[in-house]
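seq/struct pair 1
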Amino acid sequence: MAKQVISAIIVAGGKGRRMGGKIPKQFIKIDTIPIIIKTLLPFEKLKVINNIILILPKKWKQKGFNLLRKYHINKVIEIADAGRTRQVSVYNGLVSLRKYNPDIVVIHDVARPFVTEKLIKASCEGAKKHGATSTAITIRDTIVEKRKMKLLDRKNVVRLQTPQAFRFPLILDAHLHAKKRKKCDYPDDSSLLLSFGGKTFLIDGDKRNIKITDKEDLQLAHAIAKTL
């Protein structure tokens, strides 16, 4: 049986408005290393990942190229243009990846720099077996649907993270379907797939795999980095 080709899409299309700085958050440093590089390193090191598509705003692509050279990130084969939403950015990445004909694609947000090789590998294995996989975290808080003020059973609710991994034709078709229907604001790729009747297999995520959105998240990220 031929070895499957596994590609990664790293979504770094944000402009960091909620962070409030002069540069997008993906270029802010944690532990002296830019977030974008911290996120890319596990994918670079992991043997099962064959290549990477990085997504950046056009204005910041040259800085991206410079950092890839500086930190010897060699698996990035293209830097695709970011779109006006995360979904459009991922679609651009999938289109760029299509000519490389991967079997599996693992999609990850650059703002989650504490992703581990173990989590990436488990995601890829899940996609091979089930077609689509999402990392998820159980919820300990009380959950209320605020419009109806209805208490939800937290046993039936999880928080989705990235990485999320898919058989490539499956997620590409889902994106094409969404584009045809002019739906472009899904927050992640598993939710897009689920909205069109697809299924995703859930695997345990990692509580340290936080998403850095604002300054409070950045402070937490610095604290996490000190424990690793």
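seq/struct pair 2
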Amino acid sequence: MGIEERKEREKEQRRQQIINAAERVFAAKGFSGATIENIAEEAELSPATLYLYFKNKDELYASLNLKMLKVLVEKIEDVRNRKNLSPAKKIRALENALYDVYEHDPMNVINVLRFQSSEELKNLSPELANQIKDDARKYLRAIAGIFEDGVQIGSFLDRHPVAFADIVWGLFAGLVLWEHTKKGFDPRKDFLRPTLGFAIEIISRGIKKNGRLNIDN
């Protein structure tokens, strides 16, 4: 291994060290409560070192956006590409994929959803903002593709597939944030899984041409 290659590998390892520390800090404190100093302490580095890798807290947090979005894209594209499932069954598998992403790291999913709906996205470099937008387009295209497949074989109503993707994603994001809000009143309650399942069932029945969902078709 050459010197330049070793330096590049060490740089990437340090970058990942910072991202992993940031993930823990953001999960514990939220985006607003976390500081570069908190993250540097967690990573056992100086704040100056962090600024060599990330321009500001927004860009560091955006890197967590990308990390979650890549997992999301992989899971949804996997559902879309399953040859052994009908479009109706893929809708139910989509429910599981979305919940799996949430269950893997609930607080970071919540923080990412809040970040993407805020002004902080405007503070990113064009390159980083475009990466996030590209990954968002990928998972929306995959969701839209599942619906489009159902339209093509005559199982689903003939409606715009992107509108369907927007509805599903908006539903998921809204339920995640609402369930988190309700936990503030009673932390023992966690109804996201059954509520998401019920919501997807309603959507599934609504897009079926005859109004009834038969997952065997």
